[in-house]
Amino acid sequence: MNAKPKRRTVMENGDAGEDLVLATLIGNGEDLGPLVRHAFEMGRPESLLQQLKHVMKKKEVEIEELCKTHYEEFIQAVDELRGVLVDAEELKSELSSDNFKLQEVGSALLIKVEELLESYSIKKNVAEAIMMCKNCVQVLDLCAKFNGHFSKGQFYPALKTIDIIERNYLQNIPVKALKMVVEERIPLIKLHIEKRLSSQFNEWLVQIRSSAKNIGQTAIGHAASARQRDDEMLERQRKAEEQSVSGIGDFAYSLDVEELDEEFVLKFDLTPLYRAYHIHTCLGTQEQFREYYYKNRLLQLNSDLQVSSAQPFVESYQSFFAQIAGHFIVEDRVIRTSGGLLVADQIETMWETAVAKMTSVLDDQFSHMDSATHLLLVKDYVTLFGATLRQYGYEVGSLFEVLDNSRDKYHELLLEECRQQIIGVLGNDTYEQMVIKKDADYDNNVLSFHLQTSDIMPAFPYIAPFSAMVPDACRIVRSFIKGSVDYLSNGVHINPYDLVKKYVDKFLIDVLNEALLNTIQSSSIGVSQAMQIAANVAFLERASDFFVRHAAQLCGIPIRSVERPQAGLTAKVVLKTSRDAAYIALLNMVNSKLDEFMALTEHINWTTEEIAENGNEYICEVLIYLDTLLSTALQILPLDALCKVGNGALEHISNSIVSAFLSDSVKRFNANAVMGINNDLKMLESFADERFHSTGLSEIYKDGSFRACLLEARQLINLLLSSQPENFMNPVIREKNYSALDYKKVATICEKFKDSPDSIFGSLSNRSTKQNSRKKSMDVLKKRLKDFN
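Predicted structure:
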């Protein structure tokens, strides 16, 4: 009984709790959707409906209680509201009265306001009309301004005016007709300007191409002047340094300041190009214009790079390179000043094209050239061309490499030209000592090549110890050095001295020395010519030191750096060898002539009964020839060469005398013949001693003599006339008295020596005794020599 009420209470408390929650949610104005959705999902919508009804009843109860509580206050409020209504009626009456009065007063004012608004509207319309007129006037003013520029050919300001109209006025032109006219005319105007501009630009292209040659020539001429000034300055500096080093006086160094055109600027008009580019920029077609300009300039360059076959290259090379130089000088100015018309890659492409073509042209033309002068002229102009364009930032190394690769070809041509000149000089030379009559000739032929034998100026007329070919050959060598330096300078090699020295060596060895040897070995020269050639070679050998100094001077090398012994020319040694060859040829000629005289020994009576007291016939001819030979040699040859000639001639005579005893034609000889040869030999020895002293050789060679060259013949005669010839086999005596004699020769000659004592000494017993003793000694010598052999 008691359990049930408890359960209901619990249920009621539960329902009360849920009602409280629901009431709270409703009171807070929250969304009941989730609660309703939950009730339907749980399948309990009736329970929710009951709760809502329960909450509604509770709210109705609360409302009734609230009304009961505030009833009196509500009645009081209603009464107050009625009082307010009365006051409102009174206020409304007052307002109506005030409004009537206001309407009466404001009617006139309202009319004035309407009139004012109408005036404001008129003013606005007038202002807009004025503004429209101003816009039209401004547009028309710009059009008039454009017409003025256009009529004067001032297309850039004309287009700027059109651009202002388009950007600032075209869309705001109030007059439709005017706007339509302007819109229609602008494209036509731009097209017309573009055509006129293209025509003017094409004329400029033609004009700038025709001016390129003059531009290039002017720039290259300026480079040539600058090079000349630099060379002159270096020459003055070199001379001052040499004088300072040599200590000749006191020298003050001064800097000659010339008014040089350091701001050298080539003047040519690029205004049409700038104008065209700016106008195309305004037209928005700058890219097309850049391409058009580059294409046309490239076509012009390719045309300029074509070498005309109608004119020799040696006549057209200056125009060819000047045209190209002018082209790239213009392009350099364009890329620096046009503001993006060209880019560096385009210039580089054009330059690479030009370099490839120029190197090809130079290779081809150099291969066909047969004149060193022509090749040098082209090379010199190309180096000036390279120096000019290098100043504008172009790479010219490939051109200089072509020139360097052609240096052997140039020197081959130069060598051949100089070879012909040398051959002509040698062929025309009389090989007689040069007679110099004036000091100017002495300067030009002697001092200019350091050929003087003394620092004292000689008396005139002066007989030089060389013939005319020496200074003539020196002049040819000097011109060769100048040509070599001219080609090798201002190119790849900063200091061409070593190359110049190499080519000078080649010239002296392969050309000059070869020509001298050919002359020496020819059969057309005589003894005096051979002497003169030998003397000439000695002076050419001396001049080789001058050639080295001259090459160093032209190359800008200090002279002191080439005066070391190891700095000389190899050709100097070769010329010395040729000088020795000339002496050998001379001696061969002398010996050949002596052989003609010594052949007279065949007419000697080798078994004569009488002694030739005044010498045999041949010895007179020999002495006359030796006298002439040594006198001539003394005038032409230096003393050392004179000594060689004398020694060689006398030694050959000595050998010839010995050979006469060995000759197959001499079957036997006697003592009388030997004594006759002894007299000949004494005459030779006397002549040798006299000439050795009279020529001054005795002062130079104090321990020598011409007599020593006759030693073999003298020892042979002494042996044959000796009272004890068997002493020859004594080593001590032989070394002392017969060192020059050969065993076999002595044996052969002794076999032929057969003397008759009775016929020689007659009836004189003392002489017969002496002769018998000598004969016995000779027989002993013959036997011992036979045993020795």
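Summary: The longest strand covers residues 435-436.
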